[in-house]
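Milestone M4 deliverable, item 7.
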Amino acid sequence: MKRFTLFVALATATPALAGVSVVAPVNNSNVATSVQYVATATTTCAHGVSAMGIYTAPGVLAYTVSGSALNTQLTFNPGKYNTVVQEWDNCGGASKTPITITVAGPVQVSTPANNSKVSPPVQFVASATTTCPAGVAAMGIYTAPGVLAYKVNGANLNTLLTLNGGTYNTVVQEWDNCGGAATTPIVITVGSGGNSGQFANLQQQSGWTGYALLPPLYEICASCVPNGPQTTWAMTQGVKSPSLSGNSAQMDLGGQTVYSDALWNNHLIGDFSSQGLPDSNHSIIPNVHNFTYDVYFYATDLSVSQALEFDINQFVNGQSFIWGHECRIAGGNEWDIWDNPGQKWHPTGIACNPVSNSWNHLVIQAQRTSDNHLLFQSISLNGQTATLNYYESPTPTTWYGITINYQQDGNYKQQPYSIWLDKLTFTYW
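Output delivered:
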């Protein structure tokens, strides 16, 4: 529900499309063995849509449902599938949308990519499935045969490993509660770490600037002030409770203009750097390709929030890369990601259900690819990792830098609410 100006983006409602509109899975995406299909259909037939269905191969109708909406889970074996989502109307007509997916095995590694070149620390993000009724017991990373460098309980893994330069034949493995195991090999070449770094506890550091974004355009309101009346906002650092570290930051939103938002932005590297890294000789930012936004957030009543937004922004070589991630709460409990060229939000079909009166842990992984595209890699909320593998294109800019955003959106009553942020860590390499 907002717009980025340089580092902020405009959210507009996704228009309804004629025919079959498939929200999930994304075409040409890599998915796990259990695949969620979410789609809707429209027709010019005066009597409406009769039914919808999914073909998993030519002539193989795996699922049908009456009506103009479809939401179901299908289980696939590993492999590539040219699936089709089709609608039939009550006038004898039909339309369809092809969706190609590649189904991974039991261990899905979203990062690092196989045969990729990376800089330390190396981010590993993976999830696992199993046919064992008792589920996955643990996951781990072998950096060499017999060298178990990391292990964690459960079916999700998200960690940073510090590795020296060289080529590694790593293996990500899962162990289930029935005595079984599965692996995925990942070959990586680790280079020098001169262009990598990490900012820890950013919620307590300087450099945050707040803005109001007003409907309908959601541009930054130059005349608005923190005490309103259109939108009120405040950031209070050094909060002891609620807190995990003893120093959380309280972020407040209110005001009289319904559906208005508060945006906080921090320029980390490059132009207007708050961290003493202006990178005036352009030796850092052009060589940075990977990002992790890791934060804990808390609220007493999340139902009054329209949405929460967490963004990673890179401006380099005349191109703007905005990895916008929005958790719609009152807006539908779903993750949206930012369509840079289209200047709109793209629904992912991934549920976003943070918990009130509890600390929620969010980890976002993104990448600028070697051919200068945006790769939305994964979103992990409270230990549940969703692999996106969604590509987008950049847009032109004259800015130079790496920044992050945090944003709170007001609802139809503009009910005031607070979010506490803690242990906000940003890693780049």
